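User: What would this chain look like folded?
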Amino acid sequence: MKIHADLTKRAVVDSASLDWVPSPMAGVERRMLERDGEEVARATSLVRYAPGSAFSAHKHDLGEEFLVLDGVFSDDSGDFPKGMYVRNPPGSSHVPSSDPGAVILVKLRQMQPDDAAYVRVNTLDPAGWQAGRAGESILPLYIRPDEEVVMLDWERGASFDAQEFPGGAEYFVVEGSFEDQDGRYDQGTWLRVPPDSRQTITTSQGARVWRKTGHLAA
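Assistant: Here's the prediction, encoded as structure tokens.
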């Protein structure tokens, strides 16, 4: 299965327009944003857990990262409410579940083999947020030489100078909306811009976005 699998191409998906597709486990459904492979795949998806649902124990050979968008997601290491950003490195395993139900943005098989970091960040905690450009606040989530993951808050009416992304960039709009030279991206939109892209961003109503950069370099 290939969905937006060419990482050299720009891709935009309004996740709200997609159907929820059943997974192999009852009560767990997915909206597939990008995918290269079958059940074991390089994938970026929204995953919805019905109340009381669970997924069988499994291992992540090339890692897993997720952002909890709604509800409470749980596994062997704890409970992760809305706003939690989590990284489980290559070789990790767990038994995911949700008592009240949950929706997560999850990326699978997209880490480097030498990435050994376990990361847990509460993006709703004001601590750790820093001033960025004028009209911007930034929360670092994970940084290494070939990858940077952050949450960004952009104030209503903010406008930023053009920015170069030699290693590409990927966004998920958590709240609000923003615009660039190619379009407008509302809440729930996933956007990928390829390596060597140049982007000029504005936001008329303000936005909170998850962004990853650098990871799409050849």
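The mean pLDDT is 94. If you want, I can go into more detail on any region.
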